[in-house]
Every structure is written in structure tokens, then in C-alpha cells.
Design goal:
With about 90 residues, this protein is an all-alpha fold. The chain contains 5 helices and no strands. Helix 1 packs antiparallel against helix 2 and helix 4 (about 65-75) runs antiparallel to helix 5. The N and C termini lie far apart (about 40 Å).
């Protein structure tokens, strides 16, 4: 896509991340999510939560704190939900 002169927008990144984690491609989804966040585009809470849980399911728990911090910043009003996700990782 990029090589043909198209530039992805936030919706493109969010859709890509969503379909990647749904397909079990958690590490690739993480790379795309990080690229998106570098552009200050943070996916919705449910996408971030699913990605964090997916990473935990494949023992990539070390990657989760960075995403959790982004969730806390972006979704400050959802602090309780962020804490629940974090607590779930500790179990």
C-alpha cells in the first residue's frame, strides 16, 4: 500500500490491528499498533484490551505494560477497566 503511494490513516491502522489479533497474529498486531501510536493514533479500548490479552496468551507479557500505559493515558475515564485488564495479567 505504501509503496504504491497510499498513506494509511487511523482507521486503516485500527482495522489492521483488529484483524491481526483476531487471526492470532498478536506480534504483528503489536508492531502495527506501535506504528499507529507513534502517529498519536491509539486504537479503541476494546482493541487494546484484546491485544494485551492476546500478547499475554502467547507469553509476551513484557510487551503489555507499554500498551497499558497508553490505555491509561488515552482512556483516563476508563481507569477502572484499565486496572481490571492489568489485574487479569497478574493472574
Amino acid at each position: 500500500m505504501v509503496s504504491s503511494g497510499c498513506k494509511p490513516d487511523s482507521d486503516g491502522y485500527f482495522t489492521l490491528v483488529c484483524f491481526l489479533y483476531q487471526g492470532g497474529e498478536f506480534e504483528t498486531a503489536l508492531v502495527s499498533c506501535k506504528e499507529s501510536m507513534e502517529k498519536v493514533w491509539v486504537p479503541i479500548f476494546s482493541t487494546m484490551k484484546s491485544l494485551v490479552n492476546g500478547l499475554a496468551s502467547i507469553s509476551k507479557i513484557d510487551e503489555a505494560p507499554e500498551l497499558l500505559e497508553q490505555m491509561k493515558v488515552k482512556f483516563a475515564k476508563s481507569a477502572v477497566m484499565c486496572s481490571q485488564v492489568e489485574d487479569g495479567l497478574r493472574k
